[in-house]
C-alpha cells in the first residue's frame, strides 16, 4: 500500500489504494493539503457490498471545507457529502467497475499557509462489510452458528473469486487465440501483397527495358 504524497495542483496526485484489506487491518490515514484533491481507486466485482467510515480533521482556515464523492467509472454518483467531517457510507456494486473515493479540499486564499487536514478512512467490502452481530440478532444465531455463517460466506466469496479468475483466464486465452489468428492472416496477406508487388515490378521493368531495346 502506497502512502499519499501532498500534491501541488488542484487535482493533486492519484493514489491507487487496494481496498481488499486483510481482516483486522486498521484504517488508512493521510494528509490532504489545502486546495487539492486525492482519490482512492479499486476494481470490484459485481454485487459486492462496500462500507466505509471516514473522519476529517477541522480545517485550518475559516470557510474551508472538504467534500467527499464516491463514483464509479461511468461517473455515477454513489455517495456525496459536502463539508464532510465524520460519517459512514455504504453501497452495493452493480457491475465489475473501477470505483473511486475522492476527497477535495476547498479553501479561500489567505495570507498564511493553511495546515493540511488529516483524513482517516476505513473501507471494507465483501464478507468484511457484513455486520454479523445484526445478522445474529435478526436470525437468533448462536456464536458458533455466526462463525459458521462467516466461514460459509468467506468460502462462497473465495469460490466466486476463483470463478471470476477462471472466466478472465478464458477470456484472455480467447483473445490471444483470436489475435494470433488475425496476425497469421495479416502476415499471409502482407506476403501476398509483397509477392504481387514484386511480380508487377519485374513485369514493368521488363516491358520498359524491351521498349528501350535494352533486352530482347
TrEMBL record:
Location in the cell: Endoplasmic reticulum membrane; Membrane
GO cellular component entries: endoplasmic reticulum membrane
Residues in GOLD domain copies: 37-125
Source domain of life: Eukaryota
Segment forming the signal sequence: 1-27
InterPro entries in the cross-refs: Emp24-like (IPR015720), GOLD_dom (IPR009038)
Transmembrane domains' residue ranges: 183-205
Record flagged with keyword Zinc-finger: no
Main subcellular location of this protein, as a coarse class: endoplasmic reticulum
Keyword match Lyase: no
Topology with respect to the bilayer: Single-pass type I membrane protein
UniProt-listed PROSITE patterns: GOLD, PROKAR_LIPOPROTEIN
Keyword terms: Endoplasmic reticulum, Membrane, Signal, Transmembrane, Transmembrane helix
Family: Belongs to the EMP24/GP25L family.
Protein name, as recorded: GOLD domain-containing protein
Amino acid at each position: 500500500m502506497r502512502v499519499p504524497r501532498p500534491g501541488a495542483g488542484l487535482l493533486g496526485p492519484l493514489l491507487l489504494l487496494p481496498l481488499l484489506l486483510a481482516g483486522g487491518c486498521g484504517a488508512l490515514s493521510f494528509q490532504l493539503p489545502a486546495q487539492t484533491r486525492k482519490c482512492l481507486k479499486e476494481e470490484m466485482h459485481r454485487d459486492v457490498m462496500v462500507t466505509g467510515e471516514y473522519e476529517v480533521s477541522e480545517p485550518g482556515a475559516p470557510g474551508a471545507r472538504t467534500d467527499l464523492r464516491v463514483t464509479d467509472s461511468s461517473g455515477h454518483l454513489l455517495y456525496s457529502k459536502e463539508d464532510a467531517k465524520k460519517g459512514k457510507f455504504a453501497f452495493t456494486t452493480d457491475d465489475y467497475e473501477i470505483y473511486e473515493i475522492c476527497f477535495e479540499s476547498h479553501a479561500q486564499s489567505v495570507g498564511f499557509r493553511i495546515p493540511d487536514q488529516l483524513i482517516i478512512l476505513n473501507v471494507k467490502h465483501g464478507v468484511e462489510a457484513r455486520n454479523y452481530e445484526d445478522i445474529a440478532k435478526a436470525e437468533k444465531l448462536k456464536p458458533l452458528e455466526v462463525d459458521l455463517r462467516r466461514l460459509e460466506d468467506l468460502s462462497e466469496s473465495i469460490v466466486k473469486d476463483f470463478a471470476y479468475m477462471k472466466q478472465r483466464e478464458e477470456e484472455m486465452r480467447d483473445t490471444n487465440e483470436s489475435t494470433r489468428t488475425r496476425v497469421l492472416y495479416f502476415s499471409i496477406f502482407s506476403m501476398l501483397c509483397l509477392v504481387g508487388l514484386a511480380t508487377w515490378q519485374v513485369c514493368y521493368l521488363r516491358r520498359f527495358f524491351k521498349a528501350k531495346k535494352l533486352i530482347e
